[in-house]
Amino acid sequence: MDDGEADSAADRWPATTVEALNDYLSTGIHKVNGWCVPQLWQSIWPLALEIGPGPVAEIGVFEGKFLIGLCKTFDAAGRFDAIALDVFDMQEFNLDGAGVGKKDILASNIEAHGLDKGALHCVEVDSLTLRSREAQEFCERYGRVAFFSVDGCHEVVHTVRDIEFAMEVTENNGLIAVDDYTNPNWPGVQEAIARMYLMRSYAFVPLVVTCNKLLLCSLSYHAKYLKVIENYLRAHHETTRFKRVTRFGFPTLTVQPNLQTWTDLAMPD
Q1: pTM of structure
Q2: How many distinct structural domains can be found in the chain?
Q3: 267 domain residue, yes or no
Q4: CATH of the domain at 148
Q5: Given pLDDT bands bounded at 50, 70 and 90, which one contains residue 147?
Q6: From residue 170, how far is each of 53, 63, 164, 176, 189 by CA, in Å?
Q7: Domain ranges, residue 33
Q8: Which one of 2, 61, 107, 190 has the largest count of C-beta atoms within 10 Å of its C-beta?
Q9: Please, are residues 75 and 53 in contact by the beta-carbon 8 Å criterion?
């Protein structure tokens, strides 16, 4: 991605692309097994317009419910890769017994929802083995990603390692999502975040808590992205409640959409 690109959001996201994303979020997402609500895009979409197209990645993909939505969001022209990192058949490393990712089901779902199966790259790996060398190899092969979803093992050590790896391979203007941050069944996720931000400083910092996920962004874009989300919600989602609060010393948004209704994402200007 080139921050100096002169093309408009409308050029990067033609009407047909936005319509396809809205169609997936209103109907298709409910046909894929997993845990993700479409109202999450009320916070993701306005930032996607700022970030632009690019590769996406996820640790812990299950059957692709969230990953498919990310592909449709950030792969406007069908040019970029989707990297699925999971233990897959190495279930001895699925230490918390969370959802079992299966490559064949993932690939089938990707294709069923109109995406290029050839752009999907499945990496079978225990994420605790990912180090700086693996991050460098990842970037050399795929480039830095626009969006990285962390949804792997929910133990503290795994969550910390996965987030730190995500930070190494995500664009400076990109986003990282940490799943199950507000899920009481997986307290290790909140503990991991607390340990990280109480013990040291990171370039990526808390931005939004919404729909069971914590979004992180670079401190360089933090103030801008807060305003972008607030302005978008005020303009397009009047039944969504949001509030600025302080988390670990950073102003963040708590966003609570109305989960009983679905409103199409607004077309880019």
Answers
A1: 0.93
A2: 1
A3: no
A4: 3.40.50.150
A5: very high
A6: 13, 23, 10, 8, 20
A7: 9-256
A8: 61
A9: yes
